[in-house]
């Protein structure tokens, strides 16, 4: 199922004036795996489909030796410069450790101001729509870190902010500060989240995958979750190498159910897996990285996937993350569930 006529509808991101579509375009390949022409074509296709937000980071692809430093942000900036008006919003990230010193956090005010200024220059924007701290520094109080973010917001350098790869406990503290009025600009987080769960022994130590507790926090607080690796790195499509990160009994179980549902409606399993996530009662946006326009249209079809309430329920009750649903057609919520490994 690859209906290229599908158009997404943007809905408000909770607590903000930003209207964001269900699928956010991941920018990790822009300017690196995809050259400038291919990157521009993908960005154009995303906007033509109604897309409103591209996700990127200051550090994207800097680990590759032969690419332009900051190539994703720079490519997006050049693309924005060729398009009249605000073609799309940009969510970018900073505060990532220096790649030469990965264990040294960079969330001090000087580093953050440097990264935010650099992103503004690369993107050619007067202010960032949504900025996220790419990593955490558990040595620092959450209030101290968010205080810097608020100062940057007060200075007009960003409109809204969030965090990426923070634990549930640290995010919960940030929510408490938001609710107390100390961090009104805090509106989103990023974690790995898909219909399959990354294997703990293959997950980099500095990345965080959403679990049932994280999803419950988002559902109850109204905090938006921008889920990266939403396609489980091709696990449902049978991508070579995906098994290294996702091969487990629970993931094989959910893949079997997804494949059964996909066969029932004549769709690709990867599309069905994305569509099922969009039925969760969580303020969720799925960040989808695509290597081509064709791949983008394959992912886009998930937005209009004709899944019945029963089919969605059958997938939700086997999600390895521990998300279940009360009954078909009654809405879905995140709840801790004990599952076998």
Q: What features would you describe in this structure?
A:
- The protein is of the alpha/beta class and 341 residues long.
- It contains 11 helices and 12 strands.
- The strands form 3 sheets. An 8-stranded parallel barrel has the order 3-4-5-6-7-8-9-10, surrounded by 4 helices. It has a two-stranded antiparallel sheet with strand order 1-2. A two-stranded antiparallel sheet has the order 11-12.
- Strand 5, helix 3 and strand 6 form a beta-alpha-beta unit.
- The two termini are 32 Å apart.
- The C terminus is likely disordered.
At a glance:
The protein has 11 helices and 12 strands.
Mean pLDDT: 90
What is the makeup of the main sheet?
Answer: 8 strands, parallel, barrel
Large-scale geometry: globular
How much of the residues is beta strand, in percent? 15-25%
Poorly predicted tracts of residues: 324-341
List SSEs in N-to-C order. EEEHEHEHEHEHEHEHHHEHHEE
The rounded Rg comes to: 19 Å
Strand order of the largest sheet: 3-4-5-6-7-8-9-10
Cα end-to-end separation: 32 Å
The amount of helix comes to: 25-40%
* SS elements, strand count: 12
Discrete helix count: 11
Structural class by sheet pairing and helices: alpha/beta
Structure keywords:
about 350 residues, 8-stranded parallel beta barrel, two-stranded antiparallel sheet
Topology:
Layout: E1 11-12, E2 19-20, E3 23-26, H1 36-48, E4 53-55, H2 71-82, E5 89-94, H3 109-123, E6 128-133, H4 142-154, E7 158-164, H5 168-179, E8 186-192, H6 212-221, E9 224-228, H7 242-246, H8 249-265, H9 269-277, E10 284-289, H10 293-300, H11 309-316, E11 324-325, E12 332-333
Parallel strand pairs: 3-4, 3-10, 4-5, 5-6, 6-7, 7-8, 8-9, 9-10
Antiparallel strand pairs: 1-2, 11-12
